[in-house]
Amino acid sequence: MSTSTAISEPLPGQIEPAGTTGLAAPPSLLPEAPPSLLPEAPPLSGLTERLTSASHFAFRHGNRLLIVPLHRAGLSAWLGNPVTGCQLLLTTRGRKSGLPRPTPLGYCVADGSAWVMAGYGTSTLWYRNLLADPRVEVLLPGRPPLAATAEEATDEETRRRIIPALVRSMPLPGAMIGCLPTSAPDERILELTAWVPLIGIRPLSSPLVAGPDDPGGHGWIWRQAIATMLTLVAARALRGLRRGRPDDRVGT
User: Fold this and answer.
1) Tens digits of residue pLDDT in 178-204
2) Range of the domain at 130
3) In whole angstroms, how far apart are CA 155 and each of 33, 193, 194, 210?
């Protein structure tokens, strides 16, 4: 960590807020991640390669321009539903730059931790960041930011118990693994995700307990009801405005 008289070094488990400057850690303090014990990702070719590249581009820019600002504005709970799942905002420290790197991720809550998967395998940037520095910050729906520790779960028992539940908590994004999560057996889901790292994020303050805005909760119901009513009201008002316009086809 570079010396600074204006801003002190964060305590263990803390991370600087996004946008902070002058806090970059020297690369020597953030070593490269050790080799993964997971199988290699399946090779991509043709249409699969193009779709993966396109999704990576869309996620990167969509997250930066829209989803991350919504999380920081406290609106992440409005994004959650049983089809697309719920999202948290994970902030890691760049292993080369030392700067905060926020990433929205689908998650589930179990065993006092939030669980996420590195969908692009061991080359996923935020995954490599947390291997180099496991001190992270996590922002969950309806909660303040929490200092936490991130750790990869490599034991088979944990992966067999968490991964199917995590993938099924977000059926639409989960289908990107190559099956329909809601109907696929556990063994099929585990087979298709054998190369995907599983990460547990445990807050330093106290074990995490699932709330109404987490996967499996019912907070989404009233939010979606309000959003639907507002949409209907806006549509009705728009139709009223259109009816009130003079017919441009009538001459004067």
Assistant:
1) 899 999 999 999 999 999 999 999 999
2) 54-216
3) 18, 14, 12, 23
